[in-house]
Amino acid sequence: MGTDHSVISEPSSAESGGRTRRPEVRGPEIARAALDLFVTKGFAATKLEDVARAAGVSKGLPYLYFKNKEELFKAVIVEAIGEPLLRANDMVDAFDG
């Protein structure tokens, strides 16, 4: 029985030539992987190579998105607390009391 999975799933790496993620989502993916490592290993002990491995990207790719580890840390902060702060601001602005 064949089922067309093209509507419900992304093509595998082999089907798409090895690229399944779009470049615009890689930066946030790298930041999320870095957050996990910063929490478990600490900022000083985490290398960008470790972050790349955890994010499932090549060793040099984080450098295309972030100038250095400090810039990556800033992105981690924005990724981790930026959206919740925006939602909180929206809630305060919408409050009628």
Largest sheet: none
Distance between the ends? 59 Å
Q: How many strands appear in the DSSP assignment? A: 0
Write the element-wise H/E pattern from the N-terminal end onward.
HHHH
Uncertain stretches: 3-17
CATH topology, what is it called? Tetracycline Repressor, domain 2
| Average pLDDT number | 82
| Number of helical regions | 4
Annotated CATH homologous superfamily: Tetracycline Repressor, domain 2
**Helix and strand composition category:** mainly alpha
Please tell me the total number of domains.
1
Q: What is the annotated CATH architecture?
A: Orthogonal Bundle
Beta-strand proportion: under 5%
Shape: elongated
The Cα radius of gyration reads 18 Å
The helix fraction, in percent, is: 55-70%
CATH level-1 class = Mainly Alpha
Overview in brief:
With 97 residues, the protein is an all-alpha fold. Helix content is 60%, strand content 0%.
Fill in the keyword field for this structure.
mainly alpha, Tetracycline Repressor, domain 2, 4 helices, 60% helix, disordered N terminus
Describe what you observe in this structure.
- There is one protein chain.
- It is elongated, with a radius of gyration of 18 Å.
- The chain is an all-alpha fold and 97 residues long.
- The N and C termini lie far apart (59 Å).
- The protein is built from four helices and no strands.
- α1 (23-41) crosses α2 (48-55) and α1 (23-41) packs across α4 (69-94).
- Residues 3-17 have low confidence and may be disordered.
- It has one domain: Tetracycline Repressor, domain 2, CATH 1.10.357.10.
- The chain has helices at residues 23-41, 48-55, 61-65, 69-94.
